[in-house]
């Protein structure tokens, strides 16, 4: 790989890494209690405005959980902490 191609490759990798970590930087700016409050308000607002969720449509409920809650929690770590030594 010549120097010019390496420079282009390095720039591409740097941009991709910056884009991948941008949501983490944004989350770090928000206090934990503010994040929970915001997330709770968003989820409750979605539940109140969506009649299908209120009727018990599990696919809509799962879509809401997957889009709003799961990106903000480490499910495996949280479960391991709750179960304790029996997790292994």
Brief summary:
The chain has 88 residues and is mostly helical.
Q: Name the shape in a single word.
A: flat
Question: Biggest β-sheet: count, sense, barrel?
Answer: none
Query: Would you identify the regions where 5 or more consecutive residues have pLDDT less than 50?
Result: 1-7
Rg, rounded, reads 20 Å
Number of strands: 0
What's the pLDDT, averaged over the residues? 78
The structural domain count equals 2
Q: Strand-and-helix sequence, N→C?
A: HHHHH
Distance between the termini: 46 Å
Content of β-strand: under 5%
Fraction of helical residues: over 70%
Number of helices: 5
SS content category: mainly alpha
Please tell me about this protein's structure.
The protein is an all-alpha fold and 88 residues long. It has 2 domains: 1-29; 31-88, no CATH class. 78% of the residues lie in helices and 0% in strands. It contains 5 helices and no strands. The chain is flat and about 40 Å long.
Any key phrases for this structure?
88 residues; mainly alpha; 2 domains; flat
